[in-house]
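Hey,
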Amino acid sequence: MEKLGPRPSRADRRAQLSEPRRAVLDQLVEQDEPLTVTRVAQILGQHPNTVREHLEALTRAGLARRDHLPPAGRGRPASVYTYAPEASFTSPEYAVLARVLVSYLTRTVPDGPVLRDHALEAGRSWGRAIVERDLELAGDRTANGTGGRAPGGGAAAAGGGATPAARVPSARVRRDAVDRLAAMLDRAGFDSGTHHDGAVSTVRLGRCPVLELARERPEVVCNAHLGMAREILSSSGVEPGQVSLAAFVEPGACLLHVGADAGASGLRVGPA
């Protein structure tokens, strides 16, 4: 019988790169937009020829993608580079940290609702840290004249200063927020994809960076992932009660649902 749930996450292919080449790849991921050789060279303070060599090597390794800008006059159109989904940021350190945190929680908090609440809150703290980091990155891009936007597409500014809980996101805002979350989870090694069906969006998580640990203690690991997702989506006005996680429910994936009533706990482990 085929196992339910996601597959193990890919190994960290960055570990096989030299430090200069890893720095180039990190910029593709952090900037999260197509970059020219010149722009990467400016950011890193390196010669364009050196950067071009690294980008081409990353492309050959399947860790970056090369496209071309639309032609503008004579001459060859400029090349732009983006990171590939295979450029996973999953690392052994993440797995070790996850096991330490799970071990600590299970030793200090008794099994049951209290343990699940602690795991959910830990995930929310994780999500808040991600949102704050992305806001800082967006601010740096704006200051440097490279564009970028805050999580939620600037909805807080457009909403006249309303708090996230006071906003009711439109269907488009919700879909955009889910797509951004899925892209972030993909970079973290979850191999995610989205499907939008009316009022409900689903993120299919094809891999898990800490799969064995999630199988052992889903009430901790999966609740932490759920709390993280809820906190990130709440920055776009999505209510936590509209975000649920169905873990180990089908061969090859866990499913994160956004837009439907999450039920009492928001987490379901195993098929219904």
